[in-house]
Design brief:
Blueprint: H1 11-20, H2 24-28, H3 33-44, H4 50-57, E1 63-69, H5 74-88, E2 93-99, H6 104-109, E3 120-124, E4 130-135, H7 139-149, H8 163-185, H9 188-194
Parallel strand pairs: 1-2
Antiparallel strand pairs: 1-3, 3-4
Helix pairs in contact: 3-5, 5-8
Amino acid sequence: MAPSELFDIRSTLWREAFAQALPYATYVATGTSAQQERWRSYRDRLSLTDAQREISSGFSRRLNVLVLSGMWCGDCARQCPMLDLIGSASSALDIRFIDNQVNPQLRDELRIHGASRVPVALFLSEDLFEVGRFGDRQLVAYQRKARTELGDACDAGIVPPPSEELSDEVGEWLEHFERLQLLLRVSPFLRRRHSD
């Protein structure tokens, strides 16, 4: 039980949405054959370095991650497999996925720049309090978009990004996870709860 001074007005929304959400493989199975293949092709291109695997496997605090997504979304097809990859390297992570049409209240709560965007990862403590959120694209993806879309350039988004960019995105996602793990690791009330 969390101390009484902890409060999140959205805790009921987070709990209900997390209960509705699906594990990665189950979520991917909801897509069409073409969508599933697109997601699989990205997952097959991804891996963690030994250093990244060491970081992930060292996570000790329970971190629940609720990912607002869409099987139809190209950014989701690229990034959600990254989240699954990181999650598969740590027993402390419970990552679940929910379609952005399933829970309109959640979709509206997680808007970015006023718009409904996907993917959005909502990071929740073991008590399902929000500890962070991140959505849309990683910095490396925006840097590429700026190079290819600003000025005379125009990227149609048909060609998948190079493997180096995918690897950099995995690294950026892992940094989000590591930051929030450390936030929870040094939390005074969690340290008291876990006697560490």
